[in-house]
Amino acid sequence: MKKPKYYYKQVGIIPMKESEGKIKVFLITNRKGTKWILPKGIKEPDKTYMQIAEQEAFEEAGIKGKIFPKIIETYLHKKWKGICRVDFYIMKVNEVYCVYPENFRRRKLVSISKAEKFLKNKKLFNIILKAQKPVKIKTP
Fold it and tell me: Which pTM value belongs to this model?
């Protein structure tokens, strides 16, 4: 079933955090729990890209932090009998919550190199690789 036009514009998050002296990324499972993905959601007409990014990061992964306003990568994928465009932004994670709206999803903090073994979609891994270069995650 085809969805309204705005469903096909989406916002994705690359949630990164320094842990144990390394930059790591949060991965979450899809709704069915069958594969590892990055948080993303529909760009609702009444919200900005940054608002959607913050909302999806918290709802799906239970995280909050600083979102960098530059799109790192745009990813196209087939869904709902159409093509979705997902603009990915980097988030520097500052807060991790135990209770969050979609805590039925599993969440995992992994090194960049380990992310590859969890992600079936290699395009998502390449987006993570691209994201680790332009932004310094370290805190003073």
Answer: 0.87
